[in-house]
Write a structure and sequence with these properties.
6-stranded mixed β-sheet, 192 residues, globular, 4 helices, tt1808, chain A
């Protein structure tokens, strides 16, 4: 999904949430500014669907699970609300309020790059994510080629970066105990 500026007037987080909960389209919120989310391409949707299938299958009967697209995540350090493409949660979810629609404790977030958002996701959005205390891993996937950028929080707090562009690569998602074969993530995405 791509983000476009939605309004020039700054709004409070409370105003954003009130608006967002009744809106027909989603927006992300960054320190008073709204960014409308636009539709995703077929490739983007397939990558997300494949990823959900692979992770859901591996996480069956475990203490972690995944949700896609509609789970809003609060980033308190940067006064932001965002919609990752996929979120993994381990243990009891912590939600912001009684609406049960804003997660505070993601374990893993995944973004699938769109041409219009690639720079922001790799820059500002990644910085936002890395301030979330519960977050252990960030995975950024291309939609036009087999390519993964994998950030893993280390015990001392810094982030380790790994990258691969090989379709036969296998990523180990330690925080949720899963192995991710890129060939499975890109099934039907790149072969026609």
């Amino acid at each position: 999904m791509t983000a476009e500026p939605a309004a020039s007037r700054r709004v409070s987080a409370a105003e954003y949430l009130a608006r967002e909960r009744t809106a027909e389209t989603k927006s992300e919120y960054y320190a008073g500014e709204l960014f409308a989310m636009t539709g995703a391409s077929l490739r983007h949707g397939l990558v997300v669907a494949n990823l959900m299938h692979v992770l859901t299958t591996q996480l069956r009967n475990r203490d972690c699970y995944v949700v896609a697209n509609d789970m809003r995540v609060r980033v308190p350090e940067t006064d932001s609300y965002v919609y990752p493409d996929v979120v993994a949660i381990c243990g009891e979810p912590q939600l912001e309020d009684a609406e049960l629609d804003t997660l505070l404790n993601p374990t893993l977030v995944v973004e699938v790059l769109s041409p219009s958002t690639a720079d922001f996701v790799r820059g500002g959005k990644l910085e936002h994510y890395r301030t979330i205390q519960s977050l252990a891993e960030v995975l950024i996937l291309a939609q036009d080629r087999a390519h993964a950028e994998h950030w893993v929080r280390q015990p001392e707090g810094h982030w380790q970066f790994k990258e691969t562009g090989m379709a036969d690569a296998v990523l180990r998602l330690e925080s949720i105990g899963c192995e991710l074969k890129l060939a499975d993530v890109y099934y039907r995405v790149l072969d026609g």
